[in-house]
Write a structure and sequence with these properties.
Keywords: Signal. Pfam families: DUF538. About 25% of the residues lie in helices and about 45% in strands. The protein contains 2 helices and 12 strands. It has helices at about 1-40, 45-55, and strands spanning about 40-45, 65-70, 75-80, 85-90, 95-105, 110-120, 125, 130-135, 135-140, 145-150, 165-170, 175-180. Strands 1, 2, 3, 4, 5, 6, 7, 8, 9 and 10 form a 10-stranded antiparallel beta sheet that branches. Strand 2 and strand 3 form a beta hairpin. The protein is globular.
């Protein structure tokens, strides 16, 4: 029986080694695939982002001024990086929020599968899923609804508002509190 147990343990050790080698090979293959995939993407700086978006038919003002860089793959998938979250106003009445990281698919005149951009309308924040260019307008799609805005509203990058912060101002020994954007 001892010899049978010895064989069993030897076989078990060999099987564990095979599994570990297979895992190591699979990890190496994944790393190689990731390296090839990253070679196909284009990582660039912030100044290039504004020029690149214009080559796809969009005005540079569709991007906030806080872009730090982006990756654009050959299939149009992109990741846009900002310094931080950014809130702007469209037509001085619609708050629009950009997350620190925005993803989607870019093609000429179309930004689709967007994640990381919201607009506030009717007291509710809505995810913008698509932005498309239609002649002299930009069409923002939020679910089944859409809103059209003139391209002229996006000539220049908008200014990000300051984050809402509760503050306590001390003036001459007295305290004044308030909320600042």
């Amino acid at each position: 029986m001892a010899r049978v147990q010895g064989l069993f343990l030897d076989d078990l050790a060999a099987a564990v080694m095979c599994v570990m080698m297979a895992f190591a090979l699979a990890s190496s293959a994944e790393a190689a695939a990731a390296a090839v995939s990253s070679e196909k993407s284009l990582a660039t700086s912030s100044s290039d982002a504004y020029e690149k978006i214009e080559t796809y038919g969009f005005p540079r003002g569709i991007l906030p001024p806080t872009v730090t860089g982006y990756n654009l793959e050959a299939n149009g998938r992109f990741v846009l990086y900002l310094e931080g979250d950014c809130r702007v106003l469209i037509e001085e009445k619609y708050p629009l929020e950009y997350d620190k990281v925005i993803t989607g698919v870019l093609s000429y005149g179309q930004l689709e599968e967007l994640q990381g951009i919201r607009v506030k309308a009717f007291f509710v924040w809505w995810d913008i899923t698509t932005i498309s260019r239609n002649s002299n307008d930009l069409l923002f799609v939020i679910g089944l609804l859409s809103a059209k805005f003139p391209l002229a509203n996006f000539d220049d990058p908008p200014v990000c508002e300051r984050k809402k912060v509760d503050v306590l101002l001390l003036a001459g020994g007295g305290g004044v509190s308030g909320t600042v954007w």
